[in-house]
Design a protein that fits this description.
Strand content: under 5%
Mean pLDDT: 79
Number of helices: 19
Distance between the termini: 41 Å
Radius of gyration: 19 Å
């Protein structure tokens, strides 16, 4: 298990699994043998970010680990690893795939190469974030592939650099996206529970950073939950267990999903973020700033386009940092949708 989970939360997960019967079928599809996953009749190509987004969105329903190295090479070729903040969702996805395929992890990691030194941090973090009990052994074994990144490798191996289970939620918006990436790779509820925990800061007045991150998290929970019945089932079961300050906001997310009014969650979050930003600077949200500079926020585009287009097969994950921005922008252009 990648995260330490209390007994109470384990009961929550068990109940959610009962509510969502399809979860067992999805879990059974994950193979522990390299190459044992049945490939779909039509193999999607990875020529554009849009195609990658579509493939990642449905990966957990029909995981094909043999295609992940090809997808990673495409991410590199398309420039999706150039910004460390924007790569967070992809790092989480790759970490989830590695963590979900322990037996074939060495072969999988080896096939991710070659990557330029400037992008090898993606692999280093994915290994460290995988949650595998022997992740340090894998990182050390593959350090020879990445001699230019020995400083970062040493930080994870010997200097206590935090793994995904331990990185504080208020460490920056990329944490939320990394957790979503892990979920989209595995369907595991554990990373989603961490995102839900951020809701306790939605009305935070003394810490602008936490207030902004919590409201972003709230929007992603609503948008992704609106397209995933397993997530909605989890939200229902989790409400009694959420910290008191977060429970009303999780109930609001559930209500918005069930009444098809997730746009209200987005509008309220945007207003709360503007108010929070007016109270003081937000030091760590550089990617959010970049999105605003180009005139479209990731919240507006990434979380709305898929619903507006009405095509579930290209329903993009709702994330914060803009990792999917170029792909989402293409979808928006196709559908004639712009952010407001």
């Amino acid at each position: 298990m990648i995260f330490k989970i209390s007994r109470a939360v384990r009961l929550v997960l068990a109940a959610a699994a009962l509510i969502s019967a399809s979860l067992a079928a999805a879990s059974a599809q994950t193979s522990a043998q390299w190459g044992a996953v049945a490939k779909p009749a039509t193999v999607p190509s990875f020529d554009t970010p849009t195609q990658l987004v579509a493939w990642i969105t449905t990966y957990r329903d029909a995981p094909d680990v043999t295609r992940v190295p090809e997808a990673v090479q495409a991410m590199s070729r398309l420039g999706l690893f150039k910004d460390s903040q924007s790569a967070a969702f992809y790092i989480g996805f790759i970490a989830g795939v590695i963590g979900d395929n322990q037996i074939v992890a060495p072969q999988l990691i080896d096939d991710l190469f070659p990557l330029p030194p400037s992008e090898q941090a993606v692999v280093i973090k994915a290994i460290a974030y995988s949650g595998l009990p022997d992740w340090k052994m894998h990182l050390e074994n593959f350090s020879g592939h990445m001699p230019a990144r020995k400083v970062l490798i040493r930080k994870y191996l010997f200097e206590g650099e935090k793994t995904l289970a331990d990185v504080p939620l208020d460490n920056g918006n990329a944490v939320i996206d990394t957790l979503w990436g892990y979920y989209f790779a595995t369907g595991s509820y554990a990373p989603v529970l961490r995102i839900i925990d951020a809701l306790r800061w939605v009305e935070e007045k003394s810490d602008v950073q936490r207030a902004v991150i919590a409201n972003m998290a709230k929007v992603t929970l609503a948008s992704n939950g609106a397209r995933d019945e397993n997530l909605l089932a989890l939200y229902h079961v989790q409400i009694p267990y959420v910290r008191s300050t977060g429970a009303p906001h999780l109930r609001a997310v559930v209500s918005a999903i069930e009444t098809f009014e997730t746009h209200k969650v987005r509008e309220q979050a945007q207003a709360a973020i503007r108010e929070a930003r007016a109270r003081g600077p937000v030091a760590k949200l550089s990617a959010w700033g970049k999105a605003n500079q180009i005139g479209q926020t990731v919240l507006s585009v990434g979380c709305v386009v898929a619903g507006a287009l009405g095509h579930p097969e290209i329903a993009a994950p709702c994330v914060i940092t803009g990792a999917l921005y170029s792909g989402i922008a293409n979808l928006a252009k196709i559908g004639g949708v712009t952010s407001q």
